[in-house]
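SnoaL-like domain-containing protein
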Amino acid sequence: MTASTPDAVKRTLEDRLAIRETVERYGFHLDDKDFDALRSILTEDAVLDFRDHRLDPPRGLSPFVGADEIIRQFREVVVYGADGPFQHIIVSSLVEDVSEDEAVVRSKVLCPMPDQLVIDVEYRDVVVRTPDGWKIKHKTCKRYNPNTAWPGSRLTLNANWLANGAVFEGTDDPTIT
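Structure:
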């Protein structure tokens, strides 16, 4: 899905604000563990894909497909427990129009983690207009420093996720992805 030029769609300021707020709510709802609110900003067929797509094949935590599975994964598998809570600090976002009812939002995100580590990533959200407002249809995450290990925290998180049933793709040792 490729975004068109900014002048292709005459997006209202109200829509632009609603689109950005939808993306920002993701972090708030997840950090607050408010899964009902999180569900309210996802389409039923939403996909969260946090694999590293610069690798062939992509490597990392297998995509979560569908709102029910996304919520289940965050409740039961990718739980925060002693390793969290995380914080999703969206530093800046850019809304790229695709059509009247679809936009791509690229957001620079900082996530403070245990061990005084801050992860810097870019979220790419495909957001669509629904009868209930703007919702996230597809989310990917790109690490800016993929060759830098996330010491301690990443190993602990992945090991905990594995113990809770997480599935990783493209790696024999998911504790180091």
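The chain has one domain: 13-162.
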